[in-house]
Design brief:
- The complex is a heterodimer of chains A (about 325) and B (about 325).
- Helices cover about 75% and strands about 0% of the residues of chain A.
- Chain A is mostly helical.
- Chain A has a single domain, classed as MetI-like fold.
- The two termini of chain A are about 10 Å apart.
- Chain B is an alpha/beta fold.
- Chain B has 12 helices and 12 strands.
- In chain B, helix 4 packs across helix 5 and helix 5 packs across helix 7.
- The two termini of chain B are about 30 Å apart.
- The chains are: A mainly alpha (about 325), B alpha/beta (about 325).
Chain lengths: ~325, ~325
């Protein structure tokens, strides 16, 4: 068990290093921050001075090495635009993003899972078809389109809700709905197919054959099994709490991490972009670890697989 | 003696395709009936339909009575009480028939709670007694095991223990040994035979293997393409099979002694359920076929005491092979 999680932890660390490295290389190959920030008309001496100041004149591998050694001292660099520490800049934005993504996650869970279960239990009924049609619509409409449609309807036409900004909780309603709908749709489809898979298993028939009332068959025998695949997709949603709202934040002018990322990329503000990507990779990897732990709790077959197979092939 | 369970003209179809085409059968208290026939002939569907365990798209008609009370299409609450309580069922693949995420003890205790109102320590003690009864070694510890930690044979014993939890009057064993290896098969069959005697329980043993049924049952019903084609006491079916299909099944059994001979396979295949012949379903494969066989489905007729067969040529056939 310990060796298994040691292995997973190591793999998580490698994943994060790879993400950071990839971001480092791509950002440096795809444009010159000195020219972007100083503007193209700036005198060459000023541009050169900027490069020296930020270490951009050094060979790439030296920059990479310095960047990495700084990370281990907790220094994620400074924003090239205003000189503040990148980490501070990013962490300032996290609460605003979570204010959208956490309520959206609750919507996904509270609508997606019950809808999927209901559809599966009434397979091929009118209800099932209705739920699935809504689900298809929900995850095929891109969030920026849905966001703009909601703004058009509730802000422009009806005037019930503000179209953007972050002044009050009412400003959060439309972005939260926009975020929640797509996820709820995905979760509904996932839960439905997981339930259908489980309901076709022989042990469900066994439970009915021994006289378990249908409601108890569903709750006691089907759901604990259907939870196993559903946890995977929920874990993914939890992992994207920090950075899952880039588009929606842009549509609704919500000052969160996502918008900071868009601005920082446009400005080639290297330290900020890398800091955000590091944070995103870390949350995703952490939530994957938690999902692995939950698998063990939900599925006894994996639990004994973990005890006997330290390589973790079972996960 | 009045029958415990009676099926009358039980028919099942899936999306308009008939799977069961009128079954008449009676099970007496305490008797052991074997049901044989090849895969897809409707052996399992008969009992899944009788207990209301088929998926919703199945159309079930006819009548199933338990102690003269109609149970087909009964209310869910009525069915839940008798399923596992009066009629229990075990299945072919024990490993996937047990819930993989629940401990074995919990699964058995659930049946004890539902049918005998036992909970907590009392249920656990009874579950342990049942595990001992079906011959699970180290029963107390096995109660806390999960299905994947046991072998197929042990899991089938757990299934049997769970089926016995409600002290049923009838146990339906649907190919209980098909997924197990041969030595374990014999043990499970012996166990079923012993439990039946000790608990005075009726047994329906579904199998595609006439040999398996011969050992464990008093009487056998032979099914072909959704119908019972012959029904007789075990000894009689081997001595004087009336239906050519039964004859073919017996011919396909390897003899345990005597000279080696090639096993006789029945030529042809089971007809497609969507395109059943108008007359006898076995006619296209039957060596004794006459034109009349293809006109109408033959009625089941009495051959001798407790012996019925649905074949126009039954007497003639018997005369030839006597």
């Amino acid at each position: 068990m310990l060796r298994f999680f040691g292995f997973r932890l190591l793999r998580a660390a490698i994943t994060i290093v790879m993400v950071v490295t990839f971001a480092f290389v791509v950002l440096r190959l795809s444009g010159d921050p000195a020219l972007l920030i100083m503007s193209v008309d700036a005198p060459p001496e000023a541009v050169a001075a900027f490069r020296t100041a930020w270490g951009l004149d050094e060979p790439l591998w030296v920059q990479y090495f310095k960047y990495f050694s700084a990370i281990f001292e907790g220094d994620l660099g400074r924003s090239m635009r205003d000189g503040r520490p990148a980490l501070t800049l990013v962490l300032e934005r996290v609460p605003a993003t979570l204010a959208l993504t956490i309520p959206a996650l609750l919507i996904k869970l509270c609508i997606g899972i019950p809808a999927g279960i209901t559809a599966a239990l009434h397979r091929n009924s009118l209800l099932d078809r209705l739920v699935m049609a809504l689900a298809v619509a929900g995850f095929t409409i891109p969030s920026f389109v849905l966001g703009l449609l909601l703004v058009l309807l509730f802000a422009v036409q009806l005037g019930w809700l503000p179209s953007g900004g972050q002044e009050s909780w009412r400003h959060a309603i439309l972005p939260v709905i926009t975020l929640g709908v797509g996820g709820a749709a995905v979760l509904a489809r996932f839960t439905r197919s997981a339930m259908l898979e489980v309901l076709g298993q022989p042990y469900i028939r066994t439970a009915s054959a021994k006289g378990v009332p249908w409601r108890a068959v569903v709750w006691g025998h089907a759901l604990p099994n259907a939870a196993i695949p559903t946890v995977t997709i929920v874990g993914f949603m939890v992992g994207s709490l920090i950075a899952g709202a880039v588009v929606v934040e842009s549509v609704f002018s919500w000052p969160g991490v996502g918008r900071l990322l868009v601005v920082a990329v446009a400005n080639r503000d290297l330290a900020v972009v890398q800091c955000i990507l590091l944070l995103v990779a870390a949350t995703m990897v952490t939530s994957n670890l938690v999902v692995d732990l939950l698998y063990g709790a939900l599925d006894p077959r994996l639990r004994s697989g973990l005890a006997s197979a330290p390589k973790g092939a079972a996960a | 003696m009045t029958a415990l369970v009676t099926l009358r003209d039980l028919a099942v179809s899936f999306d308009g395709t008939p799977a069961l085409r009128g079954i008449d059968l009676a099970i007496a208290r305490g008797e052991a009936l074997g049901m044989v026939g090849e895969s897809g002939c409707g052996k399992s569907v008969t009992w899944l339909a009788a207990l209301g365990l088929l998926p919703g798209k199945a159309r079930v008609t006819g009548s199933v009575t338990l102690d003269r009370a109609e149970i087909l299409h009964a209310k869910p609450a009525v069915l839940d009480r008798l399923r596992g309580g009066r009629i229990a069922m075990i299945f072919q693949d024990p490993a996937s028939s047990l819930n993989p995420v629940h401990r074995l003890g919990k699964q058995v205790c659930e049946a004890l709670r539902l049918h005998r109102g036992l909970t907590g320590a009392a249920a656990r003690a009874e579950a342990k007694r049942l595990f001992d009864l079906v011959g699970i070694p180290d029963a107390a510890r096995r109660l806390d095991a999960f299905p994947h930690e046991l072998s197929g044979g042990q899991n089938q014993r757990v299934m049997i223990a769970m089926a016995l939890a409600g002290e049923p009057e009838l146990l339906i064993a649907d190919e209980p040994t098909t997924a197990l290896d041969v030595t374990i098969q014999a043990q499970i069959l012996d166990l079923l035979a012993r439990l039946r005697r000790e608990m005075n329980m009726a047994l329906v043993l579904i199998s595609h293997d006439l040999g398996v049924v011969a050992d464990a049952c008093d009487r056998v019903a032979v099914m072909y393409a959704g119908r019972i084609v012959e029904e007789a006491p075990i000894a009689r079916i081997f001595a004087e099979p009336a239906h050519p299909y039964t004859h073919g099944l017996i011919g396909a059994l390897p003899p345990i002694d005597g000279p080696r001979r090639p096993l006789a396979a029945i030529p042809g295949q089971v007809p497609d359920p969507r395109a059943m012949p108008k007359g006898c379903a076995f006619a296209p494969r039957c060596p004794r076929r006459i034109d009349a066989c293809e006109v109408a489905i033959p009625e089941s007729r009495v051959m001798a005491a407790e012996h019925r067969a649905a074949c126009l040529r039954a007497e003639a056939f018997e005369a030839v092979h006597a």
